[in-house]
Amino acid sequence: MKRYISHPLIRKDTIEQRLYQLALASSALKESCLCVLPTGLGKTIVALMVIAARFTEYGGKALILSPTKPLVEQHSDFFGRALPGCAVATFTGSISPEKRAEIWKNSQVIVSTPQVIENDLRARRIDLRDVVHITFDEAHRASGRYAYVYIAERYLKDAELPLVLGITASPGSNPEMIAEVCENLHIKHIEVKDETDPDVIPYLYAKEVEWVRVEVPARIRALKRQMECVLSDRFSKLAELDFIVVASASKRELLDLQRKLHAQVIEKSNVNAFSGISILAEIFKVKHAIELAETQGAGALERYFDRLNTEARSGSGSKAAKRLAIDRDMRATMKMLALCTEDHPKLDAVRRIVADQLRDNPDSRAIVFTNFRDSAEMVVNALEDIEGVSAVRFVGQANKLNDKGLTQKQQVEIIAKFRLGEYNTLVATSVAEEGLDIPSTDLVLFYEPVPSEIRTIQRKGRTGRKRAGRIVVLIAKGSRDEASYWISARKESKMLTTISTMRGLTSVPQFTDQPEEQMPEEKISEEQASEEKGKQKMLVEFSGENPAVYVDHREIRSGVSKILEDGGINVIMQTLEVGDYVPSDRVCIERKTTADFIDSLISGQRDLFRQIADLARTYERPILIIEGGDLYDLRQIHPNAVRGAITSIAIDFSVPVIMSRDEEDTAAMIAAIVKREQDDHGREVAMHGKRSAMMLPEQQEYIVSAISNIGPVVARNLLKHFGSVEAVMQASREDLKAVELVGPKTADRIREVVGGEYKR
User: Fold this and answer.
1) Which residues contact 380 (CB under 8 A, 6 or more apart)?
2) How far is the C-alpha of 185 from the C-alpha of 137, rounded, in Å?
3) How far apart, in whole angstroms, are the C-alpha atoms of residue 24 and residue 9?
């Protein structure tokens, strides 16, 4: 007979009592904890018990963070049912910031994606002072610039009674990865349960794992040999530039070389660096083509070549794509591919395995995982004629070339139909590995192995939850599949060994560079926090207090705002009408990466110049920062065009252009401007500029230049030629074309705007 958790806040007779969950919750209540528990064993229930206990003792709020919207809604539904006396709210980006701020005040449990909470914290719409517990779902994501890291840092600083629980089934394969997660989430204790624990075993079901190896067809092997000729030629070209790389170099080694060359481009220390980067881009594309041929088949390779040729024909296509499209050996490969009509043997294996599963167990469910959308489509097509199989393609929300993603609503509908049995086979990309409430299945089929222990564990976790499950991994012999399988197996084994040594650790000193005394047993006191704050690295030294800068909310992911904040500057997130950073009432900064800057020139739109014009009209001291070191080497655009654009911005718009190396350099430059404006000149920081009213000529130029495709120079030419705004607007197409720099398209556009009927 089942026994249920009894707690005044938890709905009666709903949560089964399991000793291992109680033990984990007990540990997680003592200090901030990382809980490692296999998929399907109730990590969320551990969080529920901890939250209920914290509410009973302290009241306050609890925050549950999860990486995807569907998981957020799943958790919100669970906590809403399990905690009937608590106000549970769901935060997503679709809710307006103002409404979120109001909901935050009136809710006790908030379930959200981390990006939304980070945005609201930076914009000061919410605070964490009375949050007594945060749960970080899929805690292994807490690395680099992921929002979990910032939220945990703010939580430790702001909360009066902080306690963190990180939950994951797969924390990483080495101590350093796990240490980074613990350090970033300020976790002091690690609890591990695995499938060998006596208190876990009663709740586990067997998982049968089998590997099916298939032969790569002879025609595919011939395609590979042809493309290897291309690779050999490109490696020789690298050698001619004194970049020696063996043909058997791993992807990691090639990426390391690419990073090294990018650094040399920025430093201008090697004239051959950009050529090397471009050749490496070709190598990556060819290697990807070989992998598709071997592991996915001719159909996937044909689709890839179609996209490559489309890119090559595009004006904005990369040089690498253009060179490959006309390469003799690549053209020969494409001709050979046209004769390759047989399916990859993996498709036959999928048909056989899925058909057998559903014939023997008609009520069962199957998931076929594949790395590529094209392959997912091919698998669905291969299964559509098999009796008893109802397959559906399940991909992410992003739209790709000739491939529209699924909306969240469509994803939810497909999962619901899968649960009800309208579909019995889900053919999914990585979107189904993590973050979606997909029912347990009886068969998980890997169309190819993945070289990630985390993804492998997540895929395997989709079966064996409520009854015995079956896992089948397809491997194309002698292909990339073999390497991926061994890499994943080694990492998974290493991870299990690592976490088994971490059971019950009360600190992670052997995994971090921090001395033990920096791990306080209790919450950092206000005095200690103040002392630590005083030690933070300042970008510049301020004599005054509270230097601040307004930052547009779209810049939140750039990293610059985080560097500014870490450097002691008060970052105020707002929706700015113009610009990205406002350090005073007269200065506004527009930030562009070199890629953004070049894209704006290639696209044919005048958005950049309109932004610059708005900047110059609104603020007395507008500034453009272009960030990155390869301005003249990106895309197929002549350096003179780049210089012309910069010259126009500096002379025609009177906007200074500052070049920066990277995000840190940009942040340091902005900090220096903040210091000069607020510290040296005593100016206030204000969102709205105080530029003096425009003189009549400026107003006239503004009106004319408001028409798209007309910049300040053309506007001045028109006004000089016709004498007034009225005359410009009344001029005929032929008269307009007589003006310097006004061509047929510009003339047509002026006449269209002036004479077109207003329809709204």
Assistant:
1) 391, 392, 393, 427
2) 12
3) 19
Per-residue pLDDT, averaged over 422-442, amounts to 82
718 part of a folded domain: yes
Q: How many domains are contained in the chain?
A: 5
**Residue numbers of the domain that contains 549:** 537-680
pLDDT at 265 (0 to 100): 73
Token pair of 124 as six digits = 């000061």
Backbone φ, ψ for residue 511 (5° rounding)? -105, -5
Buried/exposed code over 189-198 (b: 16+ C-beta within 10 A; e: otherwise) = bbbbbeeebe
Residue 172 in contact with residue 428, Cβ under 8 Å?
A: no
Q: DSSP H helical segments within 296-401, as ranges?
A: 298-313, 319-326, 328-338, 345-360, 373-383
Same domain for 227 and 191, yes or no, is no
CA atoms within 13 A on the CB side of 716: 7
Q: What is the CA radius of gyration of the chain?
A: 30
Count of residues making up the chain: 760
Q: Are residues 40 and 181 in the same domain?
A: yes
C-alpha span between 419 and 437 (Å, rounded)? 10
| Domain final residue pick, 293, 318, 338 | 338
Sequence letter at residue 11 = R
Closest CA to 4 of 50, 13, 47: 13
Distance spanning both ends of the chain, measured CA to CA: 67
**Contact between 366 and 426 (Cβ < 8 Å):** yes
Q: Does residue 134 share a domain with residue 270?
A: no
Give the CATH number for residue 649. Answer: 3.40.50.10130
Domain membership of residue 570 (yes or no) is: yes
Lowest mean per-residue pLDDT among 71-80, 421-430, 500-509: 500-509
Global pTM exceeds 0.85: no
Q: Is the dihedral of CA 118, 124, 125, 127 positive or negative?
A: positive
Q: Is residue 5, in this structure, part of any structural domain at all?
A: no
- Sheet with 366-369, edge to edge strand ranges: 207-214, 469-476, 443-446, 366-369, 425-428, 391-394
Domain's final residue, options 477, 501, 525: 477
CB count, 10 Å around CB of 692? 6
The pLDDT, as a whole number, for residue 520 is 39
Q: What CATH number is attached to the domain comprising 722?
A: 1.10.150.20
DSSP letters, 209-266, are EEEEEEPPPHHHHHHHHHHHHHHHHHHHHHHHTT----TT--HHHHHHHHHHHHHHHH
User: Nearest to residue 366, comparing CAs of 410, 418, 411, 413?
Assistant: 418
What are the pLDDT digits (tens) for 403-427? 788 887 888 889 889 999 999 999 9
Phi and psi, residue 357, nearest 5°: -60, -45
pLDDT of 296: 92
* 35 and 166 both lie in a single domain: yes
Same domain, 705 and 726: yes
**Residue 638 per-residue DSSP state:** -
